[in-house]
Amino acid sequence: MNISKVSVLISSALFMATAPSYADTQMTFGGYIKADVMFSSYGNGAPASGQLSRQFYVPGTIYGTDGNGKQVVDFQARETRFNFKTATDVNGHKLTGLIELDFMTHSDGNERVSNSYSPRIRHAIVSYDNWTVGQTWTTFQNPGALPENLDFIGATDGAVFVRQSMVRYTNGHWQFALENPETTVTPYGGGDRVVSGNGMMPDVVARYNYHTDSGAKMSFSAIARQLNVEQGTIDSTELGFGASVAGMLPVGDDDLKFSATYGQGLGRYLGLNYANAGVVNANGEIEAIDSMGGYVAYRHWWDSQWRSSLTLSGFKADNDTALTGNSVNETAYSGYVNLLYSPSKPLTFGVEYMYALNKREDGSDGDLNRVIFSAKYVL
User: Fold this and answer.
1) For residue 285, which phi and psi values (nearest 5 degrees)?
2) Rounded-to-integer distance, Cα 73 and Cα 252, Å
3) Which of 252, 209, 202, 250 lies closest to 228 in space, CA to CA?
4) Structure letter (DSSP) for residue 270
5) How wide is the angle at C-alpha 162 spanned by C-alphas 104 and 314, nearest 5°?
6) pLDDT by residue (tens digit) across 87-118?
7) Number of domains in the chain
8) Does 234 reside within a domain?
9) Would 291 be classed as within a structural domain?
């Protein structure tokens, strides 16, 4: 036996003798397999194969591609996901971990031969009692209020939807978090989006979760953030803030899910960054852009196996076109109706029709009609 093997064995023995016992650790594997077939009609021409809006509805990506056909069909299993969870009792303290992967939002594969796409991190967090560290849903968002749609997000334009790294503290109904900052602004007069990670101030979020005896679940959240750009001729900071209410209300055996959000400088937090957080004025200073969005979704259970959801969603930005120009996004609307069938609890088949309309300040628009057929098996 060589010296290196001896040292490894000694180190392992010492670790086993001094390490705490993890006999109470519970490990769970989960996720689901989901296959989609999407028949899409783009009013101004379909994006190229593999582009983001061919995977799911992304506001701002449906204005069309000149010269391309309007009707396309896409088969995909990219929403399929896998997660691994652990829960351990460490001397009376609760220690948990979670990592989850899926295969969405990539253009690194193709549909010619193997349809191979790289996995990506959705969630990667560790929690110790009331503290959570890592990447997960922003505290400003209530993921439990998202409607049951076959589109990857559904109600995209009116939804707060962000995953990012953070430090979060939870105490009863309250949650407080410091989260990763990132600023997006429109240059003076319009042009390509400026993305900045400058600044030392994290985004600050507070949220209150409220549950009633009748089954209603509500959340009230607020955010304060510093918009900061130090690039080229731009060296400016501005305050951004916002508030959101979201939840689920039982209606007999049915339920109503909703969200309403308003803010100045929200940018990427609302509608997948359909509008930027701010615009640079003639003096090189950032001015926050007002935006609002929301959705409502009613889900009806026809019986224990059949159900349908009707969802309406919208977004509006209040752009100062003297600064932003007329080519920036102004409004986005979408609607969804579906029929889902679960012959057994882990298995669901469904069909959904969606329509989306996006408009710019100059009056140009793009629309999308899509029919989605899906099969989903929860592991």
Assistant:
1) -105, 150
2) 38
3) 202
4) B
5) 95
6) 999 988 999 999 999 999 877 888 888 888 89
7) 1
8) yes
9) yes
